[in-house]
Amino acid sequence: MDLQLSNLAMHQLVEELQYLKNGFVNNVQTLENNWIKMKIHTKEFGDKQLILTPNSFFVSKKSLSAKQSPGGFSSFLKKFIYNQRIVDLTQQELDRIIKIEFPNNILIVELFAKGNLILCEKDYKIIRAFRKEEWKDRKLEQGEFYKFPSSKGINPLIETNEEFFKKINQNKKTIFGAIIDILNVSPQILEHIFNKENLNKTQNAVETQKETTIFILNKLKDVYSKKNSKIYLINNVLFTINLDNKEKGEEFESMNSALNKLLLEKLSEETKPEDKIKKKEDKDLKNLRMRETQIEGILNKGEDLQKKGEKIYNNYTKIDEIIKAIKKAQDKGLNEKEIKEKINLVIPSIIKEIDLKKNKIIINL
């Protein structure tokens, strides 16, 4: 079972990461497991790595390697938010949706189901979604206006006493079921409050006194507005309070620390060092064989082609180094002209032409 965050845990995480506001995005990359990494420079805390996963986000305490040639959504995203200031970082009500606002764009991070990233203009017109999706009432596609999914209930922090009592008094369920219907709160947290305050979960909502309903609402407001000093992992879900479990949950100093330990620990298990080495060796061997095949093919074509093949073969090491240098420069976001100029400074006039789209390089040997 994947690690989950209660909506209260996500609320606290957003509060913890407010120091990213006014930071500037220095890079956007894709990790080997397809998580997105945003390198953010903050004035007070220096460079930070914001990691976006399908069901969470956190600032990594250790450096995470990105794909060598990721392309795709991260490269597209970088074109819009590179060197842009983070104006705001907020949670949509108490839903599993985060908004990262920039001067000209909004990046919406949906942390439910398979997860999604949606880059929008300031008026919420979609520029591009990481994953195109469509439902009866909303569509995530270029040119559409982003519509937030229906919330599971009202944010308890903005609900008034009178409105809450009125809704409870009209609900035909038990008081516990009615609150779950009306408010966007975690059932485990609500149950914790009922147990702690010795409240009857099975009492009919319409029979509940006004004082009791207001008391419960205020207790929920206290829980959701308070920043807690401890985080607890209970049944693979992170909470900011220790629930009424027989076994005490694992404790962490902060939500971000918990995610670092739990998610990066899992990531390390999935990508063991020996697996990485083998993967690199296999890739290098494949590239070598492919280049050897290309060389052999050239050598088989007449005297003129044979001479060219010999030149390539004799300069294999140099060619290989140039290809690696081009890949590194491409990862850093350099364009074809910049790459050509930088390499020609080291080896004068070695590169005649680069066409990254066609994977074409013309070299003077």
Span between termini: 56 Å
Widest sheet: strand ordering:
6-7-8-9-10
CATH-scheme architecture of the largest domain: Roll
State the CATH class of the largest domain.
Mainly Beta
- What kind of sheet is the major sheet? 5 strands, antiparallel
The low-pLDDT segments are none
Helix proportion range: 40-55%
Q: Could you give the count of β-strands? A: 17
Q: How much β-strand is present in the residues?
A: 15-25%
Q: State the secondary-structure class.
A: alpha+beta
Number of domains: 3
Query: Helices and strands, in N-to-C order?
Result: EHEEEEHEEEEEEEHHHHEEEHHHHHEE
Counting DSSP H or I runs of 4 or more residues, the number of helices is 11
Q: What is the fourth-level CATH superfamily of the largest domain?
A: ibrinogen binding protein from staphylococcus aureus domain
Write down the overall mean pLDDT: 86
Q: Outline, from the CA principal axes?
A: elongated
CATH topology title of the largest domain: ibrinogen binding protein from staphylococcus aureus fold
